[in-house]
Design a protein that fits this description.
The complex is a heterodimer. Chain A is an alpha/beta fold. Chain A is built from 17 helices and 16 strands. Chain A starts with 15 loop residues before the first helix and ends with a helix. Chain B folds into 2 domains: 87 residues, Beta Barrel (Elongation Factor Tu (Ef-tu), domain 3), CATH 2.40.30; 116 residues, Rossmann fold (3-Layer(aba) Sandwich). In chain B, the strands form 3 sheets. In chain B, strands 10-9-8-7-11-12-15 form a 7-stranded mixed β-sheet. Classes of the chains: A alpha/beta, B alpha/beta. The interface between A and B is large, with 50 and 45 residues.
Chain lengths: 472, 279
């Protein structure tokens, strides 16, 4: 029985002051010694309940055991049985709500740092040149599969079906692949080189990547099936449509949706203007509306773009925030200021149409609303003004309407999400499957990957059945 | 799937305005009047939206007209026949709603002149009478009147300095034609913001339904960023997925105008570094 230390082994990070001006990755990852020390905290439970918390059922106990023994190659092989994108998941999974939440050490001690260990193993594998090597498929199949969107759901479906021997094409509307991993999550949290490598691994598996094709515009789903000969389609187009506050002054210059702000920074490299052509307004005093992961990203990007002050403005309290614990902590370390219980009422501008500030009112929490969180109630007479030269609205996103609007016979719910069977991803149209945020509304990378995994299995079954029906 | 977009013809319309015929069959196959493309020319480059001036599904071509205003448009205009665009995505936006009958006034100003051409062709194919009104500062800047003439019942040229055709603005000619009993039932305008604003106010005064094609700043062009939001009828809409054509009488032009100037300072820097005169 090993001695179990009550706290997770610390992961070295860049100094917060240094971070404020650097786009380098903040968390430097475990060393070999630290990884082994952390893996030894695992009790190797008979019944590894942590694995039930993982949407793709990574064999956590096995891989952690390999790490504890110093067999990192074995650990990598174990992870890859269930997860083809571990370097990404090890960085962006909300582990405290998933695997680590179920760790038996918790809550008496800190849970095993499963996310950190997954990242360590993936990085070890990448630096030892064996990242993503997968055996060539045993069978080559004829039925072509189209995947719409190259985000986490689409990449997972592509990887699973390519390994089964299907010709797979991924269609991406933008000029670079990865979806939210590319345009949404900043470099300091997920270096884009990792996304590039994962895309290259899939290419090596035979997956065809096609950029600049907007399914629903350039080619419709019907055309993919009827004219281009695809036997099945997976729709993983994400929750791309930004939500605004719909309060006066929202069209002033300097007010961005989080999608626009982060896309300019991450996809278009606006922080390197004029070396890169896409501009962005560099904030002196930024106000970010919202307190989820995306809001933390926007606040921390604002700091790196040179903001003297970056404020998170949230109508509820710290308790109700949606952000991952780690990112919230990092944002605090980097000097982000949190204005809880604050509701923006309108934006004010100067004579040239630039945003100058927000008129806000304080709130207090009342009874829980339909989301189960306590409803913010404005406090009369508590109005005040806050200065800001850049405002980022990070209140979430709606499903991208392009595919639902242009595909006949696809059932859509009242939120605009595609209706899909949660077990299979099957939609109301035969041969068309969907998963990720386009089905659930804005959620997480790993949930999208879990949906992709289930859809891939279902697509394989469907196509085998169809092939069997055709045989005399 | 082949997404290459190769230039097969280039024409100088003015010193700073070029026409490109681009072989892009995938974009051409679903193109419709009123839509646009987003293109990119260098790895570090920005994404810019450009109206579709003409398309042929049979030939697999998209025709665009690009006026040099800053660094990216200068890079585009330096491309030659045989060159490929790095990215050429589309067709984007909604097809413009067009009437089945009547007499349409199509107004084109500056580099936007050509963008009314697909509307003219579609209207004529329905038997709608088409009158084009084309405006420019001076005679050397009048473009594509010959192209429009091929799909119009009449083309009226206007110049600010009177060097060709009607002496004055397109709206002056529009009102003159209305007074002469042209009997327009619809109006569509594409061009610089002040021109479209003037068309909106003239047609509102005369009770003529009108649509304008807005050209705000965009990043993705697929409804993701919301940077192209404009206020139409008091509601915020996205030009890329809800437009680009909107009811001219409902558009908040002050709002749209102001947002266009967001990156004036950065555009100045980019032009200076590239040794360009910003227009």
């Amino acid at each position: 029985m090993p001695i179990v230390y009550p706290r997770k082994t610390a992961m070295p990070c860049l100094d917060p002051q240094e971070r404020r001006r650097s786009w380098d990755e903040v968390a430097e990852g475990y060393t070999v010694e630290r990884a082994i020390a952390e893996a030894r905290r695992c009790l190797s439970c008979q019944d590894p309940v942590c694995e039930q918390g993982c949407p793709v059922n990574v064999p956590i106990r096995d891989f952690v055991r390999h790490v504890a023994l110093g067999d990192f190659g074995g650990a990598a092989a174990a992870i890859r049985r269930r997860n083809l994108l571990p370097a990404i998941c090890g960085r962006v999974c909300p582990v405290e709500h998933q695997c680590e939440l179920r760790c038996v050490l918790f809550p008496h001690q800190e849970p095993v740092g499963i996310g950190r260990l997954e990242r360590f193993v993936a990085d070890w594998e990448r630096s030892h040149g064996s990242g993503g090597e997968t055996a060539a498929p045993q069978v080559w199949r004829a039925q072509k599969i189209a995947i719409v969107g190259s985000g986490p759901a689409g990449l997972t479906v592509a990887s699973d079906l390519a390994q089964l021997g299907y010709p797979v094409t991924i269609f991406e509307a933008l000029h670079a692949f990865g979806g939210v991993l590319r345009y949404g999550i900043p470099q300091y949290r997920l270096p884009k080189e990792i996304v590039d490598e994962d895309v290259e691994h899939l290419r090596a598996l035979g997956v065809e990547f096609v950029r600049d094709v907007i399914i629903g515009k350039t080619v419709t789903i019907e055309q993919l099936i009827d004219e281009f000969g695809y036997s099945a389609v997976f729709v993983g187009t994400g929750a791309g449509s930004p939500v605004f506050l719909n309060i006066p002054g929202e069209n002033l210059k300097g007010i961005y949706s989080a999608n626009e702000f982060l896309t300019r920074v991450n996809l278009m490299h606006a922080y390197s203007f004029p070396e890169y052509d896409t501009p962005i307004r560099r904030p002196r005093r930024a106000a970010i509306i919202g307190a989820g992961d995306t809001a933390m990203d926007a606040a921390r990007c604002s700091v790196r773009l040179g903001a003297a002050e970056a404020h998170i403005v949230y109508r509820r309290s710290e308790r109700e925030k949606g952000a991952r614990a780690e990112d919230y902590e990092r944002a605090r370390e980097e000097g982000v200021i949190f204005d809880w219980l604050t509701l923006p009422k309108r934006f004010t501008g100067d004579e040239n149409g630039w945003v100058r500030g927000l008129e806000c009112i304080r709130t207090e929490l009342g009874e829980p609303d339909e989301s189960g969180r306590r409803r913010p109630v404005p406090v009369p007479g508590s109005e005040f003004t806050m200065e800001a030269d850049v405002v980022v609205i990070a209140l979430g996103t709606n499903p991208n309407p392009l595919v639902p609007k242009t595909t006949h016979g696809l059932d859509i719910d009242r939120h605009g999400c595609i209706v899909a069977d949660p077990r299979t991803g099957a939609t109301s149209r035969e041969g068309v499957y969907a998963g990720g945020d386009i089905v659930t509304g804005a959620a997480t990378v790993i949930l999208a990957m879990g949906a992709g995994r289930r859809a891939a299995t279902a697509i394989h079954e469907y196509l085998q059945q169809r092939a069997a029906e055709r045989r005399p | 799937m082949d997404t290459t977009a190769r230039i097969i013809e280039k024409r100088d319309l003015t010193d700073v305005t070029k026409l490109f015929v681009v072989h892009a069959p995938l974009v051409a196959r679903n193109a419709a009047p009123g839509q646009f493309v987003i293109l990119r020319v260098t790895e570090n480059g920005e994404r810019i939206p450009i109206s579709i001036t003409d398309f042929s599904r049979a030939a697999g071509t998209i025709t665009i007209v690009v006026q040099q205003v800053g660094r990216t448009t200068a890079l585009v205009n330096a491309l030659q026949v045989g060159d490929e665009f790095l990215d050429f995505a589309g067709p984007l936006g909604q097809e413009v709603p067009l009437p089945e009958t009547g007499h349409a006034a199509l107004i084109g100003g500056g580099f936007g002149t050509g963008a009314v051409f697909p509307l003219a062709r579609k209207l004529r194919s329905r038997g709608v009478r088409v009158s084009c009104i084309v405006g420019a500062r001076t005679r050397d800047l009048v473009i594509l009147a010959d192209l429009l003439a091929t799909e119009s019942d009449e083309v009226h040229v206007c110049t600010d300095d009177g060097s060709l055709g009607y002496h004055g603005l397109v709206t002056g000619r529009l009102e003159e034609l209305l007074d002469a009993g042209a009997g327009f039932t619809d109006c569509y305008a594409v061009g610089p913001m002040p021109m479209m604003r003037a068309v909106a106010s003239a047609t509102r005064r005369r009770g003529l339904p009108a649509m304008v094609s807005l050209d705000p700043l965009m990043v993705d062009g697929t409804g993701m960023c919301g940077g192209c939001r404009v206020s139409v009828g008091g509601k915020s809409v996205f030009a890329c997925v809800d437009g680009p054509f909107f009811d001219a009488h409902q558009v908040d032009f002050d709002d749209a105008d102001a947002r266009l100037t967001t990156y004036g300072e950065q555009e100045r820097i980019a032009c200076e570094l590239a040794g360009l005169v910003r227009r």
